Amino acid sequence: MAGDPTVGGGSAAHPVSGGKGSRSSTRHRQFRDRVDDLQEMFSGLQSARKESRSADAAVLEE
């Protein structure tokens, strides 16, 4: 659900640009996916440290 308004909002923000809206929407989605991946890795690192899994923490830090 949260992804739907951003896609619609991206094309509405650039009504004159035509194809640019879909391209920026795609880039925004890729950026969000990368941020989500980083957040997931950071969360895993925090869990590994909290649970004293030093080998896992070392891998995630790299």
What's this, in brief?
82% of the residues lie in helices and 0% in strands. With 62 residues, the protein is mainly α.
Describe the overall structure.
With 62 residues, the chain is mainly α. It has a domain at 35-62. Helices cover 82% and strands 0% of the residues. The protein is built from 3 helices and no strands. Helix 1 runs antiparallel to helix 2 (19-50). Mean pLDDT is 78; it is low at 4-12.
Give the secondary structure arrangement, pairings included.
Blueprint: H1 3-13, H2 19-50, H3 54-61
Helix pairs in contact: 1-2, 2-3
Portion of residues in helices? over 70%
The average pLDDT is: 78
**How would a crystallographer describe the biggest sheet?**
none
Q: Could you say which structural class the secondary elements and strand pairing correspond to?
A: mainly alpha
Q: Describe the global form.
A: rod-shaped
N- to C-terminal distance: 33 Å
Q: Ranges with pLDDT <50 over ≥5 residues?
A: 4-12
The share of residues in extended strands comes to under 5%
> Count of helices?
3
Order of helices and strands: HHH
Q: What is the tally of beta strands?
A: 0
Please state the CA-atom Rg, rounded to the nearest Å.
18 Å
